[in-house]
UniProtKB/TrEMBL annotation:
Its main location: cytoplasm. The keyword Nucleotide-binding applies. This is glycerol kinase. It is found in: Cytoplasm; Mitochondrion outer membrane. The gene is gk. PROSITE patterns: FGGY_KINASES_1 (PS00933), FGGY_KINASES_2 (PS00445). One of its GO terms (molecular function) is glycerol kinase activity. Pathway: Polyol metabolism; glycerol degradation via glycerol kinase pathway; sn-glycerol 3-phosphate from glycerol: step 1/1. One of its GO terms (biological process) is triglyceride metabolic process.
Amino acid sequence: MAASSHRIMLGPLVAAIDQGTSSTRFLVFNSKTSELLSHHQVEIKQSFPKEGWVEEDPKEILQSVYECMERTCEKLTQLNIDISNIKAIGVTNQRETTIVWDKETGEPLYNAIVWLDLRTQSTVEHLINKTPGRNKNHLKHKTGLPISTYFSAVKLRWLMDNVDEVREAVVSHRAMFGTVDSWLIWCLTGGKSGGVHCTDVTNASRTMLFNIHTMDWDPELCKYFGIPMEVLPRVRSSSEIYGLMKSGALSGIPISGCLGDQSAALVGQMCFQDGQAKNTYGTGCFLLRNTGSKPVMSDHGLLTTVAYKLGRDKPACYALEGSVAIAGAVVRWLQDNLGIIGSSEELEKLAASVGTSYGCYFVPAFSGLYAPYWEPSARGIICGLTQFTNKSHLAFAALEAVCFQTREIMDAMNQDSGIPLTQLQVDGGMTSNRLLMQLQADILCIPVVKPSMPETTALGAAMAAGAAEGVSVWSLNPEDLSEVTSEKFEPQINTEESEFRYARWKKAVQKSMNWETTEPVCNGNGETSIFSSVPLGFYIMGSMLICAYTIMHICNKTFKSM
């Protein structure tokens, strides 16, 4: 009997490409039950060519998508699931990351500049200095965003100013700009042979070139940054057919959903009502609260962003967002840079072995501080060290740092909305760390609710794709949405202890401020030197020696105890 006759018929399936900062995944869901049937994941290499620079290879990103698709289809076939039942594909992606490519050759003209990248700090300072009153919120009335290194416009401006290939392509009308979603959709729908150059409203709203009221590119904003509008993708809704897959086993299937990763998680968590919120723990940490059909401007350092627009004729919904740059990235730093852990699982074990940071506080401001401070001059610090401190205490402090940062943005959100959250819905890779989830409940003093199916970001993209007009295999009507099972973490410490630890954290944050400056100190030969001041030089040398001695002592003590 032919193998095909044994294939399991599950009804319509919908797939999602989830292209994140550290990995790419392809996942396939049952549109009737939201069940995850199969997936594959590939890690993405990040490069750090200079201090503060973060890049990725656009071709590696694209290849990882093809690999994940191929491997997932193989797994489905092994499960006797017919891949011809995949009716649509959604895309969700790391936002703000900026790519420019040549539309004639299809080749990227430079590496992707990742959202965390800080190379544009001097550009940002120049832009702020020329605004009335040196106001970083000068464009907020149109964009919902402060002028910051975080967003795409300044990254694109840097590429035009510093990369000859980009400048020449812009002049000769060959350049295409896009965030990762635009690059992938263009390539997957044909590339230089008729690929569709588009983005959705959620990704567009993270560029500083998009007017969140008119829901389109803004000529005045483009002029402000000196960006020619012809390089920009067409802005579409988050749920419509953009084009068809042009190659591989899934050729001919429509790509019909597109959401920036945090918006996708909001949809996947089914936060469709005004006031519902979710927090995603990935490379960074992002708390979004649905504010309905009207944009709400924050007075407490949050962003106003487009949450989703689920159809060409559907209204846009907005969200308040608190963005934290470093969450899961601190785990990678402890693993790759310090070498004190071998895996994320080891971090949880280390932290659990002591159950306290013993007064050690870790502010991981590697890329400055995002919400609610928007302070690019901040840098990471570890303080409160004693001779008793060891790597287990540092591991605990790293987990607490993620929770404290979430507390800061939740406090800001409660102040802006006037209605405090009574529980927090969470998702993302770090939510598998049960100690982190309990710490989060303790520090927020409210329950933390984790869905049993953690892939909410990919699920949101799949829901948008399956619900698109012309596909219509996934109903977003509230009565049709699947019941979500979850686990709840209740606070286990008293409020006084939580507030004491939080106050110490806030003190540590202040110590991290105003650390970096773009104004270099020069010696007599015109060369930059930190030792151009003799007292400063002695102070720095002395501090370095003391720090080195302390770290050696901690390591020796730790290894002796092992």
